[in-house]
Specification:
Elements (H helix, E strand, L loop, with lengths): L5 E3 L13 E3 L6 H11 L7 H10 L5 E4 L5 E10 L2 E12 L8 H17 L3 E6 L4 H13 L3 E8 L12 E7 L4
Parallel strand pairs: 5-6
Antiparallel strand pairs: 1-2, 2-3, 3-4, 4-5, 6-8, 7-8
Helix pairs in contact: 1-2, 3-4
Length: 181
């Protein structure tokens, strides 16, 4: 991938990011760091390291990673366009390194990704699923909706009984729309 995949953000766009950090599409080489961030989040479903490598290859256009001044991935948002609703960006996972949480980085990533995908694909909605009790994610997406003047509709997408075994909570769909960029 070219070096233009990661660009230093304008200060107005990256007010909550430290100087020298870069934001852009993930590269395959980021896969191991994304897997680590997901594992260390202690709230995300951690998929195989292989799936993060594939994600960075196959869904880079609908995902974003932020790197610190040393080039190390310290946060990401992964997503995809829903095949049956191609104007909807489904946000699959959001993670920020524990040492950088609480600084607005996840919101900056989500805003930058949605603007980029809207410019390329004309999205008008963002969806995600959140387990009950994950207040950090609920706050992130509620704040995103407020910043973009959209409403949030919630409905259980997958009840706990849909998952094998008894170790998974329900997944509540949060649909944020209408969006305009």
């Amino acid at each position: 991938m070219t070096t233009t995949a990661h660009t230093t953000l304008a200060r107005s766009e990256a007010a909550d990011l430290p100087e020298g950090w870069t934001l852009g599409r993930p590269e395959v080489a980021d896969g191991a760091q994304l897997w680590r961030l997901a594992r260390e989040s202690e709230v995300l479903d951690v998929n195989s390291s292989y799936s993060y490598l594939l994600w960075c290859r196959d869904f880079a256009d609908t995902s974003v990673v932020v790197r610190d001044g040393r080039g190390r991935a310290v946060g990401f948002v992964t997503g995809y366009l829903r095949p049956d609703a191609p104007r909807t960006l489904l946000v699959w996972q959001v993670a920020v390194d524990a040492s950088h949480r609480g600084r607005g980085i996840a919101g900056t990533l989500l805003d930058a990704l949605s603007r980029r995908v809207a410019g390329a694909h004309g999205i008008d909605a963002v969806e995600t699923t959140i387990t009950p009790g994950n207040t950090a994610s609920e706050r992130l997406f509620d704040a995103f909706a407020r910043r973009h003047g959209a409403r949030v509709d919630r409905a259980v997408l997958f009840p706990a009984a849909a998952f094998p075994g008894d170790s998974h909570d329900a997944e509540v769909l949060h649909r944020i729309a209408p969006l305009s960029f």
